[in-house]
From TrEMBL:
The lineage of its organism: Eukaryota, Metazoa, Chordata, Craniata, Vertebrata. Pfam families: Acyltransferase, GPAT_C. InterPro entries: GPAT/DHAPAT, GPAT/DHAPAT_C, GPAT/DHAPAT_LPLAT, Plipid/glycerol_acylTrfase. This is Glyceronephosphate O-acyltransferase. It comes from Lates calcarifer (Barramundi). It is found in: Membrane. Pathway: Phospholipid metabolism.
Amino acid sequence: SLVQRDPMLKKRDDFEDILEERRNSSDLRYALRCYAPVVYKGLCPSKAGTLKSMVLQSDQLHYVIHQVCRETGRAVDDVQEEASSILEEMAHRLQLSTVRFFAFTLSKVFKTLFRSICVNEEGIQRLQQVIQEHPVVLLPSHRSYMDFLLMSYLLYTYDLALPVIAAGMDFMGMKFVGEMLRMSGAFFIRRSFGGDKLYWAVFSEYVKTMLKNGFAPVEFFLEGTRSRTSKSLTPKLGLLNIVMDPFFKGEVFDVSLVPVSISYERILEESLYARELLGVPKPKESTSGLIKARKVLSEDYGSIHVYFGQPVSVRSLAEGRVNRCQFNLIPRHIPKKPSEDIHSFVNDSAYRLVRAQEENMVLKPWVLLASLLLQNQVSGQKRGIALDELTEQAVWLRDLSRQYGAFLHWPEHTPPSEVVSSSLSLHRGLVRISEGRLLSQAVIILSCASYRNQALHVFLRPALLASAIHTEVFNSFSFLRNMFSNEFILCPGATVQDFEEACYLLVKTGALQVTQQEVLVTERGHRTLVFLTSMLDPFLQGYQVVCRFLCEEATEALTEKQFIPAVRKFIIKHLLAGRLRYTEVLSSDLQKNSLAALLRLGAVRKIKGYVGFDHPYVPGFKQQQSMTVILQLNEEKHPLETA
């Protein structure tokens, strides 16, 4: 349909600033007010203790406990004891008093840090409606630690049921704060639990019990971790599988998935992230670290926009795609690995949801300015750009991004030069004005890149087409799209659709003319195409430099651990010699993604290495498994030599 093809026809809700009321009335009264949220089917939510016993008595857990006993020879009581302590370590203990404490403290913090927190009220109303009808899963984007505190704060403000939130174990190590988070609805999960059947069974049963009984909306981050680059990450499927399972097995009529887009005008962790990408280790989560971070409170972080997207019904997603009969063939409580068609359905749904998050992200003028400033930057040279030239380019880019359907918040009744200068002053840590020109270096460039990345999803498809224009257009487009599918959110199997969307946008904006035989760049399209190809150039150069490193330097096999430091050394050498244009290629995120793409395309292969072995005749000669993953160039396949 045209609405799908023309992003300008997308209708988006208006925002209202919730801090306005907080600035005009008592925070204490707000924290102590009557809180009576609507609940699922009017049920009385079960207490945390009841929830635990429901999990421990479930058929599925009993089945797995007996299975573990058979496999390990342990006593049933012993395994049951372990299941119980896993649940103790994991479970939340939601208490309204803690929530009220947070409501009071966060009001103070938010008013200090942010100019406004804007929320789409219509999205809140849709959520209110859907919470009463079906189990709800909230899926916020994840760019900052602030995300889940902010989500609970908003739901409390609007009198909605507080969510239970999947949090990483690392938070539990924060004395006091970990417990506070637990009491405000966080439940803690290990970052990875490999083949631990019992852990997986307790975890999945716990989440499903909360969901089926409408205990509270379940909230987790599809991307699995904070994005250090402000680009959406490839979605993780574990938790999404778990929350869809009750629908597949017919235990609930439907599940509503609500994508939530949280956009920060200035990210609190901005310089931390840039340093992490350059190889400075991430500080461990600790309460003292949090207290030291107090100096953050004296800064101005602009505004936040939170957009609650359209609820997505799992039932309607699955229609015509999933045959639920397969779940009737064995008893529900017997765990079963998802079949191929279920896996691909969950994967496609995850991509659709992350795309929905991206499309409702609000872009600030600074995102456009960062994109322009980076294109003007050449490594090793201190080049600036004149302010009035930057303003002219920003207005041009503002209009282009609107035609591409960007959700742009540009103050309407302010002269563009003022919009530009106020954006620059908010981000004065990243840019400075010297006699009307702007200068910026690696930490700063990576920080700017993370702002530019917020706009990538708007330009990505046309940019892939622009980069493919002087060759076999469709083939090059699909090669690049495939190459970058670890880097950007590109829905599996949607190559033709993406190609058509890119053609449509470039033709609509008069940059291309498409005849039966060829694709022509128009006179006025030249500027657009230069901008679009420059948007992708740093990524192309990043992938090329990794390929060069593997061909020239990595003659010996490399372990996965050695890869990033070795690539970094190689890149620094080339940057200093002036052979690389973009400082951005130093980003470890870019290097990891390019390695993942080369592995996926078969240009590099992984060999699991062993040291020592089991000797059947030499007693005491035990196998030492040093699971080193060795990376080796695959000689036969070299898709990039042509690129």
